[in-house]
Amino acid sequence: MFTSIHAALSSKQTARSSKSQTRVCFVHSDGGKLPEAAPASLRSTASRAAFKAELGECAFGDDGAAVIGLGLKASLTTATMRTAGARAGKALLRAGVTHIEFDATCFDKSSRSSFARALAEGFALGTWRFDALDGSATTRAARAAKLILASADTAFAEGLAQGLAAAEAVNLTRKLGATPPNICDPAFVANEAKRVAKACGLRCRVIGYAEAKRLGMGGICGVGQGSDAKPCLIVLEHKPKRVSARMKGKTVMLVGKTITYDTGGYSLKVNNGMKGMKYDKMGGMAVLGAMQAIAKSGAAVHVVALLPAAENMVSSNAYRPDDIIKLVNGVTVEVTNTDAEGRLVLADALAWGAKEYEPAMIFDLATLTGGVVTALGNFCAGYFCNDAKLATLVEESATRTGEKVWRLPLWQEHKDFMKSQHADIINSNPSRLAHPIQGAAFLAYFVPPTIPWCHIDIAGVAQTDSATDLAAAGPTGYGVRLLIDIIEQLG
After folding, report:
1. Using CB atoms within 10 A of its CB, is residue 236 exposed (0-12), middle (13-18) or buried (19+)?
2. Collapsing DSSP states into helix, strand and coil, what is residue 258?
3. What span, in angstroms and rounded, lies between the C-alpha atoms of 101 and 35?
4. Which residue, 1, 94, 368, 476, is the most exposed by fewest CB within 10 angstroms?
């Protein structure tokens, strides 16, 4: 991967000599023509029989200029453009390119910004890999030098900058997600949040274990009390000087499940079921990444983010099945399964944040249930929403970003299914019926029904076992671009 990828408004601002630039043009597979200003070397390259101009296919002229195939013209969308960027980015990386000057004349002016954004996202996402812990025995090549993406077209250049900012946030999320539990515990996440806040102008507050106990956060404290690395609630706030007219006096709250490691507690994960449980923090990492991008963009929306961070361990101090705990809003919970811990930390964050900030809307992301993976696979996230307008907003953003969602029901019958004989509710029903819905039904007890709320279960999409065009095997960073787009639409 590249050490860093930057965008520039024009070639004049980024290079004194054209010799350092690689001119890149685009062509479709169905009779597309190169721009008139394309280097002469590309005309023979593009006409070669071996070059089919398939999506993301890359070919080089004798002078080093390059042409990227876009496939069929009718099939080009921002999603396919993102894929083209990922594929071409890998080819350009192998070729040692360090400065690209894109010719945008083949795109309609109305679509240049959105296509450029998708292209840049593909470049940065597709070439990323986790190498923070490469040691002396690694056989992987060192990262390449800085890559600069530029265009003389202002709209295209601005789109490149937006895409790279979003991808940078996704890659931060991936890096933290891949960081192992012997390094990444709740305190580590808190320090990373402080670092991001300082760099981006966010406000940051960390509610430690002792304060959380005083506040009555029985979920966060209960889940994390068995670990030497005690839990905390991390609060980030983006409070811009200018707020859009639509969002004046309103706050958007983002909440991300941040279980830095999940053994299952006394409901122990068996048969190597713990492998990969460092990814149980991906909801929180996505929220943290999104907040970086939101702050850097200066979004005209007041946004508060909550990351309830805990490590679910087994010890003489760990919480147990049959324990009854009281959460911050006074609801009592009978613990039936210590491996249903994410909803407990989320519940405290949701209830406390709803009271503290009185948000106009709430979005939470969590690797919450295996049931949603069974239901939807790794093709999309499952989401639950109590407000039609909010659901429309989420689905439109999912379409634009390619981070797919599918709505699941949440009825009163589901909430009743979570009732307890000895407390108000249970954290998990022993029955597997409606398993992907149980988590959402539990969380509904901690969100005032008057607040529009969307719960997004990302258990099936937070990580991938096999590499894709846009992601190396491991954490995907799903949800970052979705949240960024939602905030952009609100602003």
Report:
1. buried
2. strand
3. 14
4. 94
pLDDT tens-place string over residues 92-130 = 988 888 899 999 998 999 999 999 999 999 999 999 999
Number of domains in the chain: 2
For the question of residue 343 being annotated catalytic, the response is: yes
Q: Is 419 a catalytic residue?
A: no
Q: Are residues 474 and 333 located together in one domain of the fold?
A: yes
Q: What is the dihedral of CA 105, 107, 112, 115, to 10 degrees?
A: -130
For residue 368, the SS3 value is coil
CB 233 within 8 A of CB 217: yes
- Asked whether residue 461 falls in the same domain as residue 315, the answer is yes
Q: What is the pTM of this model?
A: 0.95
| Res 51: pLDDT | 86
**Same-domain check for residues 218 and 107:** no
Largest CA distance in the chain: 79
Candidate list 194, 213, 239, 269, residue with the active-site label: 269
CA dist 131 to 135, 141, 270, Å? 9, 10, 29
* Whether residue 146 is found in the same domain as residue 187: no
Could you say which of 150, 170, 190 is where a domain stops?
Answer: 170
Q: Determine the Cα–Cα distance for residues 82 and 88; give it in Å rounded to an integer.
A: 10
* Domain end point (choices 127, 143, 170): 170
Helix (H) or strand (E) holding 474, with range, is strand 474-475
How much of the chain is in helix, strand and coil states, percent to nearest 5? 40, 20, 40
If asked whether residues 160 and 198 sit together in one domain, one would say no
- Among candidate residues 174, 257, 343, 400, the one labeled active-site is 343
Please tell me whether residues 149 and 262 are part of one structural domain.
no
- In which residue ranges of the chain is pLDDT below 70? 1-4, 8-19, 49, 144-145
pLDDT attached to residue 173: 98
In this structure, what are the phi and psi dihedrals at residue 301, rounded to the nearest 5 degrees? -140, 135
Q: Compute the mean pLDDT over every residue in the chain, rounded to the nearest whole number.
A: 93
